[in-house]
Specification:
By secondary structure, the protein is mainly beta. It contains no helices and eleven strands. Helices cover 0% and strands 60% of the residues. The strands form two sheets. Strands 2, 4, 5, 6, 9, 10 and 11 form a seven-stranded mixed β-sheet that branches. The chain has a four-stranded antiparallel β-sheet with strand order 1-3-8-7, with no helix packed on it.
Length: 119
């Protein structure tokens, strides 16, 4: 059984910073891409950042230059460093990992962590 557990969300003032973490546990044989998504009330879930197994990254235009995604393969963990936060960054943030258990590759999601940015 694979489990993804997120941490690091909370309430912060505009201009502040937060660091999210997402650790995967279980019978994991390999991990490919690791993603952070977010969903604000009334909005669709959107991809915020992606880091591939080779280390290449992609960011949503709205967070470029402010957010940094990184990974620690030894710990099966992905991070999202969020700086210069804005009220419009308020959302539930979810991690997703594409990983292999045995011969099967699947997407696995975390439970979500709330980020609230006050103006």
């Amino acid at each position: 059984q694979v489990q993804l557990v997120e941490s690091g969300g909370g309430l912060v003032q505009a201009g502040g910073s937060l660091r999210l973490s997402c650790a995967a546990s279980g019978s994991i044989d390999s991990i490919g891409a690791m993603d952070w998504y977010r969903q604000a009330p009334g909005n669709q879930r959107e991809l915020v950042a992606r880091i591939r197994s080779g280390g290449s990254t992609n960011y949503a235009d709205s967070v470029k230059g402010r957010f940094t995604i990184s990974r620690d393969n030894a710990k099966n963990t992905v991070y999202l460093e969020m700086n210069s936060l804005k009220p419009e960054d308020t959302a539930v943030y979810y991690c997703k990992m594409y990983l292999r258990v045995g011969v099967q590759w699947d997407d696995y999601w975390g439970q979500g962590t709330q980020v609230t940015v006050s103006s």
